[in-house]
Design brief:
By secondary structure, the chain is of the alpha/beta class. The chain is 50% helix and 12% strand.
Length: 294
């Protein structure tokens, strides 16, 4: 297993009277991290909310029910917590009733958990974001030769843990992630009336990665009004598919006026959307760059 950076950070935030919420896009390794934490802890209860039995564990009505269900544990680990209705209110009730209980919960995106936990858990949670693999994590796992040798492949197929570990069929894996999982949260939790336009918008963004973005121009390209483009980009950002990078200027007024640039969290997702899987034959030389990085 590749050790993730947040695994080292999470223990420092335990037993502070707050829940630990682990966010991230689907297939970035949140469940794997939760299982690794479970293996290092004792006196815990692990609940998988993909299962009906797991969801029903939160059907408590009062503090007595909470203490009966969870009072004998030191840790409560919850996977896919967003499956539980009103999960934010229920986590708040757990924290208030059992302050000694350390809760660690995962959710597939900020769309899932933030919409349900942000207000109820104000001042009662620490948040951690799980992204595709970083260069540091790959270096710690396999060393500098792996970082250099896999660079061209990673630039094309991306850094999802499953894809990095499975050396065969990279196109099939990243296409499956982009096709089967990418829009799942948006289509389930948001009122997306035209998913075809959502995909067209992503393709348009993929074709101008690194360039300044005009929402009006994007709308004209894909057949949306500017307001809808703004909303969809916000939702895609909440799902950790893309992120906006604002301009920099020493004059703050100019900084606010300038357009943003939009990047994808993972190159593989971007390339799958536009069917661009050409791996460069010549590998970039990372020598000097890596010396500076270390």
């Amino acid at each position: 297993m590749i050790a993730r950076t947040i695994q080292e950070l999470i223990p420092q935030y335990m037993h502070k009277g707050r829940a630990i919420i682990i966010y991230g896009a689907r297939r970035t390794g949140k469940t794997t991290i939760l299982n690794a934490l479970a293996a290092s802890l004792s006196d815990l209860r692990y609940i998988n909310c993909d299962l009906i039995d797991g969801q029903e564990a939160f059907n408590f009505r009062n503090e007595d029910d909470i203490r009966l269900e969870f009072g004998r544990y030191a840790y409560l680990l919850i996977d896919e917590a967003q499956r539980v209705g009103d999960i934010g209110i229920k986590l708040k009730a757990l924290i208030d009733s059992l302050p000694q209980l350390q809760i660690i919960a995962t959710g597939s995106s900020s769309l899932d958990l933030s919409n349900y936990t942000s207000e109820p858990l104000t001042g009662r949670k620490f948040e951690f974001l799980v992204t595709p693999l970083s260069t540091r994590e790959i270096f710690d796992y396999e060393g500098i030769d792996a970082v250099k040798g896999a660079l061209a492949r990673r630039l094309v197929y991306g850094n999802y843990p499953e894809l990095y570990l499975e050396k065969s069929m990279p196109e099939e894996i990243i296409r499956e992630i982009a096709g089967s999982y990418l829009f799942k949260d948006l289509l389930i939790y948001q009122d997306i009336k035209r998913p075809d336009l959502l995909k067209k918008l992503l393709i348009a963004l993929a074709l101008q990665t690194g360039s300044e973005v005009s929402y009006t121009e994007l709308g004209n390209t894909v057949g949306m009004d500017r307001k809808t483009v703004d909303r969809y980009i916000g939702l895609l950002e909440q799902c950790f598919i893309i992120y906006r990078l604002g301009s920099f200027s020493r004059n703050l007024r100019n900084e606010l006026k300038r357009a943003v640039k939009i990047y994808f969290w993972d190159n593989g997702i971007r390339n799958a959307l536009i069917n661009n899987f050409e791996v460069p034959e010549k590998r970039p030389d990372l020598g000097a760059l890596w010396e500076n990085y270390l």
